[in-house]
Amino acid sequence: MPGLWLEKTGQTLLNFFLPPRCLNCQADGSWLCDSCVRQIDFITTAVCHHCGTPAENGSTFCRQCKNNPLKHIDGIRTAAWFENNPMREAIHQLKYQNHRAVAEPLAQILANTVHHYNLKVDVVAPVPLHSSRLRERGYNQSEILVSWLAKYLQIPANTKSLYRSRKTRSQMTLGAEERRTNVVNAFACKDNRLQNLRVLVVDDVCTTGSTLDACAAALKLQGKAAQVWGLTLAKAQ
After folding, report:
1. Other Cβ atoms closer than 10 A to 96
2. Which ranges in the chain belong to alpha helices (H)?
3. I need a labelling partner for 198 at 20 to 30 A (CA). Which of 46, 149, 160, 226 fits?
4. Do the Cβ atoms of 230 and 73 come closer than 8 Å?
């Protein structure tokens, strides 16, 4: 995995000249210290079997999935809540401040989530950025997470088959129904390398699950994937 080797080599050199410091509390020693990890608001209650939202009163499915479920994704699982905890700051630093090193401890959290929910998958893939957005940012934070997660899970990463076929508006400012329509047919699968495989699609934050569901549609209908699961660091309310 050449990309990960370059990432690790660059990080080793960076650590030599600039030792890691927690991006949340500034404590020396790591990019996300143990104390801040303990402050993360992890999702520990029973969750909806489909979208991963904490279930109400022990229900198998949440109200949204009972009334208007996501159509293509087999399920979504999320590590923590997004609001008001170190997870939000870590994601912000990774996504917008070019602090790629924090992807390593965040990917460890994702791996722990996979093991917690006993997800059985064959390959991991990132939610892709449109080429214009990738040029603006210079990197895809989900792809960096996937590189580390594949290492922790000891399964392959596929960063090429799934791609964003059209540019969409940012999901951040849209309501639930707008989010769904915004990403319809926004993704495509260019080959059959994921055929008959159980694919784990990784993103940083999940709000309605619409983006992951759109990815699953492309992976199943075009890529012929057997199953598609979504995995995210945080759930936004």
Report:
1. 10
2. 2-17, 34-39, 63-67, 86-96, 103-116, 131-137, 141-153, 176-182, 210-221
3. 46
4. yes
Whether the Cβ atoms of residue 166 and residue 197 lie closer than 8 Å to each other = no
> In this structure, which amino acid lies at residue 34?
D
How much is the pLDDT for 167? 78
> Can you tell me whether residue 79 is helix, strand or coil?
strand
Q: What are phi and psi of 5, to 5 degrees?
A: -60, -45
CATH code of the domain containing 56: 3.40.50
pLDDT bin (cut points 50, 70, 90) of residue 233 is very high
The structural domain count of the chain equals 1
Are 167 and 133 within 8 A, CB to CB?
yes
Count CB-CB contacts under 10 A for residue 189.
Answer: 24
Q: What was the pLDDT predicted at 156?
A: 98
Predicted confidence (pLDDT) per residue in 175-203, tens digit = 666 677 778 888 999 999 999 999 999 99
